[in-house]
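Checklist before submission:
- one chain only
- standard amino acids only
- sequence pasted in full

Submission:
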Amino acid sequence: MRKLVLALITALLLPAGASAWDRSYHPGADGRLSFNKVTSIELFGWKSDLDGTVNVENGTDIDLDSDVAFGTENRLGLRLSHVLSEKSAIELSYLKHDHTGSINKAVKFDNKNYQANASMRLQNSWLDLAWSYNLITSKYIDVDAHEAFYLDGVFGIKFSNSEINLTGADALGGRIEESWSESFPLPYIGLAAGGQISDNVWLRGNFKVIKVNAGGYDALHNDYSINAALRLNPKSTETEWFADVGYRGVKYDLEGEGDKAEIKYTGPTLGVFARF
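Returned file contents:
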């Protein structure tokens, strides 16, 4: 169970967006919303700050902001999405990130005592498959303003491979090392809402939540994001190009069987995507 707990901590910190706004919201001649089938490819990054605490096997609280010199991380990922109909869309995302830093105090981790300046590395690769289903959509829009609104339910599963390595010296100066790795699937649910506010500007927000009570553990995870997309080639009649900017926040709380964790990521996101 300990390995699964640590895997949950790392896997839930990764971004995954709903694909609802990848539908075309440009109206037809009668002003009715036009949900054309489209495919999107996006390259994105998340410049996020890490905060929170981790305690494994009744060890020492490790503050991920003040005790470990991780700093700010830049992550790159790939997102593929396809609109199936007026009601549904699917999305596949991949992201890999790597934290490395030193712990500035003596700690106990997995029943081993480390002196100050132990090296800590956190790695995670993640594959996410999501399905969104439209719950509410505005029926008509003004042809000139191109305004539209949607609310979607989002259902997905994350396949994550996670690894934590801790290397340092014990009280006698001897080298000690502890490593952990785990691969597992994790389902989630959420909501996504947004709309087209002008000819070439879209807004979107989403919120996802998971609550788990199993195996002696209580866990609560949530994440939110808000994004704006700007059409870069509004006069093109073929492939559409967009710049996507936003802000994301993630929080995860867990406690049980001697393990405690509160993990938070916040920071701006940036992406470029093509829709065709």
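Reviewer check: Residues 2-11 form the longest helix (10 residues).
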